[in-house]
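Chain A, query sequence.
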Amino acid sequence: MKAQKNNNQNQIVLYGRHAVFEALRNPLRKIIKIMITNENEAEFKKEFPTLTYEKTLKKDIEKTLPQNAVHQGFALITKPLDSVFLEDLIRSTTNKERCVLLILDQVTDPQNIGAIMRSAAAFNASGIIVQDKNAPLESGTMAKASAGTIEFMPLVRATNLSRTIEQLKKAGFWIIGMDGYAKQSLKDINKNAKLAIVMGSEGAGMRRLIQESCDITVRLNINPRVESLNVSVAAAIMLYELA
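Chain A, predicted structure.
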């Protein structure tokens, strides 16, 4: 099953030092224009002495960005990254005895997805899968929250998560659903395996059919007086435990 390509967005604006610098280091990133404020020119030229850029004012950068976006004097206009397909992700894990994928069911906040990318990169996850219909498209907000890890953390947009899970099972993955009401905890599972961890949104959680597709559901051991954690925080804790 292939994810659909993003054809409805010709360009995006990335902003913030980490997001911009990582994008410029990515040979797959198609750059249209680089914008740097005067006070950041020396730092930029030290990192990228051969790149052509446009000196600009902070207020001119801010005109292209969401309100209150923290750009640190760096921005660039670029094409979105090309799609990553599920088959590619499975192929990249074929020879691994132990790896972790994340499946995000109805997680719609680009900041949450960006933060999860950052944690996934920090703890060496092999990739992230989102539902194409409900997940936000690549954006400057997502890239900023990911601290630039969007450039190298594979993100697959799947049309049907249930079918995606079945394909992962056939590829040898054990499907683990995160559920605050599960009887077993994360420490009870075998970490030395191919794991695909399913996480739902903080409010709605996993959809019923997705939860029924899991081989097992587990919970994080947190204070029972705390009902749940933000999904990006829970993902970071889970990835740390598995690593």
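The chain has two domains: 12-78, 86-242. The chain has nine helices and eleven strands.
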